[in-house]
Amino acid sequence: MTIEIPSPVLVLLVGPSGAGKSTFARRHFRASEVLSSDFCRALVSDDEADQSATKDAFELLHLILAKRLQRGRVTVVDATNVHASARRPLLEAAQLFGVPAVGILFQLPESVYQNRNQQRPHRKVQSDVIVAQVSSLKESLAGIENEGFARLYRLTSVTDSDSVIVKRLVTG
Ligand SMILES: Nc1ncnc2c1ncn2[C@@H]1O[C@H](COP(=O)(O)OP(=O)(O)O)[C@@H](O)[C@H]1O
Ligand SMILES: [Mg+2]
To answer: Which structural domain range is residue 55 located in?
Structure first.
């Protein structure tokens, strides 16, 4: 699958923990283009797994997002984004700055998330957290077409996600 990336753009990665979002972001985007909720948690608390830092981490993420979109930078949000309520303020920021939003949905078999989570060297999440994220994602996918994304790309198998080509569109 070829994913077309205009510039500027807001890219939302959407998928449960273990989907491979951070790996995907590292592979296809520059480090400075990626805003990760885990990294923002670490910035405010020195611990990317500290759930008590989530609110502060997202405030920081939204602040940096607004600065980047205002500057017309390609920006990828690497967070689970499985709830419509998490995506909404991000999409609103894109709209405010007139930047199109592209969604990349990781809709892999749940066993992939669970296996990858188990194989993580550190920071495994509880398996029932992933179960809940999968169910939230399924629920919120029903209306995702109407949330304001310019394009949605669905990765429905490991082969799909591993063979993605990111094509940067030349604009201007
Ligand atoms: N395409 C892939 N093939 C094999 N292993 C992968 C792939 N993507 C991620 N992983 C592994 O799965 C685990 C979770 O990946 P990660 O990118 O951190 O997921 P997420 O950010 O969605 O939680 C990591 O240990 C990573 O090395
Ligand atoms: Mg991650």
So the answer is: 2-168
Query: pLDDT tens for residues 118-157?
Result: 999 888 999 999 999 999 999 999 999 999 999 999 999 9
Q: Looking at the 3D structure of the chain, how many domains does it have?
A: 1
d(CA 56, CA 142) in angstroms, rounded, equals 29
User: In angstroms, rounded to a whole number, what is the distance separating the alpha carbons of residues 57 and 117?
Assistant: 22
Ligand nearest to the CA of 112: 1
**How high is the pLDDT of residue 123?**
84
Ligand 1: atom nearest CA of 119 is: 25
Q: Quote the ligand 2 centre to 138 CA distance (angstroms).
A: 19
Q: Tell me, what CATH number does 60's domain have?
A: 3.40.50.300
Pocket of ligand 1 (CB under 6 A): 15, 17-23, 116, 119-120, 162
Name 86's bridge partners. Answer: none
Average pLDDT of the chain, as a whole number: 97
Judge whether residue 172 has pLDDT over 70.
no
**In Å, what is the CA distance from 132 to each residue of 86, 121, 137?**
15, 22, 9
Q: Which of the ligands is closest to the CA of residue 116? A: 1
In whole angstroms, give the CA distance from residue 124 to residue 114.
10
Q: Closest Cα to atom 9, ligand 1: which residue?
A: 20
170 pLDDT more than 90: no
